[in-house]
Amino acid sequence: MQKSLGPSGAHQRDGRSIGPRPLLQSLLRGAHLKCPACGTGALFRRYLKVADHCPHCGEALYHHRADDAPAYFTIVVVGHVVVSLVLVVEMTFRPPLWLHCAIWLPLTVILALTVLPRIKGALVALQWALLMHGFDPDYEEEIGDRLAPPSA
Ligand SMILES: [Zn+2]
Prior knowledge:
mainly alpha, 3-stranded antiparallel beta sheet
């Protein structure tokens, strides 16, 4: 294992910061699409593609395993918001069906595309803060079914 001082001055071991990882701060940084370690570098290199390393502090971010969780939580959040609004508008104004479609379909798409990267960022930051998967500085990389040999 190699200890180093990251580009931003954060103490790192093999690209993983070894300092404290406050949960709420990490979640907020991830939800703002920023690196959970420094809060400055971009978490994503494209719309939903997490950067391998933070461009500011060098924190290794490729250890995340968000999988389908961001899509699941996005459906839960957007579904609750949109269905609630649909019910309130229907009960209050009783608009025609075409107006419902004209309002709610675009709103659902826009909300989902807006919320999805924020939820994914928060989930990646949660994994980072809880030292899940390879985010733990003491984690040994696995090669196949055996542990990697210790580096000098
Ligand atoms: Zn960073």
